[in-house]
Specification:
20% strand, Periplasmic dipeptide transport protein, seven-stranded mixed sheet, D-Maltodextrin-Binding Protein, domain 2, 14 strands, three-stranded antiparallel sheet, globular, SBP_5_dom, alpha+beta
Length: 333
């Protein structure tokens, strides 16, 4: 299906060259008139963000994804470019594998959580294009609990928690860093290095590892990691797409990279999923977020602002809050 897709969409698949390009033609028979405004659509696969930006500036492409935060001022200063932006419907976080020692110990997870200098990470990694995350879903999602607070950044208390948990001298930990950019994490390697420095202050010796992106996700699904950097962009505007998909018991072999299955939490998620009453759903999801914050299955880091640089001759382009780059109604002057 990936190589020979079937569909009735606005663009017709023509070819895919691995690690190079994907080519489409505009669908002249698309059911909705006026939506298809370009005859050829090419995704030029370009891993390096600096190269992507240079291609955009030279006119080799008209739309660019995932700019580096540090390049945004240069894009804004270029008279030939525009840079639409939108508050991201996303979350970048550190998943602790709750099935592996010592991360199965709540005091250990709390110690790791409170020894992270989140403010410094957001300043260095997101460079003004992100806001600190507290909850397991973004504040633009209905049902978000505004009363939740992060544990204060406290290295001494974190050391005391580790000692109480039976790790007075700390322990060794492997942290996986994503090999790719995503809106929720523009520089996973830098974030991992900053976490490595933070956790060294409480005696936790971190080894950073990574894999090819497909392998990274596959190994994460199977639970091979101890801790990993990962994130999520919402598929639709419902709390269950965050609280259930990322933390529910039935998602342990899927996108629940924390491998956390906690019945009091899961009962609330199922309750919220099982009714259409908005007040009841909100109450269940609020209580679930409180349990999440107490149990720390993962540490939320940031919600990033999404930027999408484009040439000024592009018309009709809009950022999709759910992540895909859509080309319906998009044309060129």
């Amino acid at each position: 299906m990936n190589l020979y897709p079937v569909g009735t969409g606005p663009f017709i698949f023509r070819s895919y060259t691995k690690d190079d390009s994907i080519r489409f033609d505009g669908n002249p028979d698309y059911w909705k008139p006026g939506v298809v405004r370009i005859s050829k659509l090419i995704f030029a696969i370009t891993v390096d963000p600096a190269v992507r930006l240079q291609k955009l500036k030279r006119g080799e492409c008209q739309v660019m994804s995932y700019p580096r935060p540090g390049d945004i001022p240069a894009v804004k200063a270029d008279a030939s470019l525009a840079i639409p932006s939108q508050v991201g419907f996303n979350l970048g976080y550190i998943a602790y594998n709750n099935t592996k020692k010592p991360l199965d110990n709540l005091m250990v997870r709390r110690a790791l959580d409170m020894s992270i200098n989140k403010k410094a990470i957001i300043e260095s990694v997101y460079q003004g294009a992100g806001q600190a995350a507290t909850n397991p879903m973004p504040p633009t999602q209905w049902g978000y609990d505004k009363n939740l607070k992060d544990a204060p950044y406290d290295v001494d208390k974190a050391k005391a928690l580790l000692k109480e948990a039976g790790y007075p001298d700390g322990f060794d930990l492997t942290l996986w860093a994503m090999p790719v950019q995503r809106p929720y994490n523009p520089n996973a390697r830098l974030m991992a290095e900053m976490l490595q420095a933070d956790w060294a202050k409480i005696g936790v010796k971190v080894k950073i590892a990574t894999y090819e992106w497909g392998e990274y996700i596959r190994r994460g699904h199977s639970g091979e990691h101890e801790a990993m950097l990962i994130g999520w962009t919402g598929d639709y505007g419902d709390p269950d797409n965050w609280l259930g998909v990322l933390l529910g018991c039935d998602a342990v072999n899927g996108s629940n990279f924390s491998k956390w299955c906690y019945k009091p939490y899961d009962d609330l998620i199922r309750k919220g999923r099982g009714t259409t009453d908005l007040a009841e759903r909100t109450k269940a999801y609020t209580e679930a977020q409180e349990i999440f914050k107490d149990q720390v299955p993962f540490t939320p880091i940031a919600h990033s602002t999404v930027y999408q640089p484009i040439s000024k001759n592009v018309t009709g382009f809009k950022i999709d809050p759910f992540g895909p780059t859509q080309f319906m109604n998009v044309g060129l002057k």
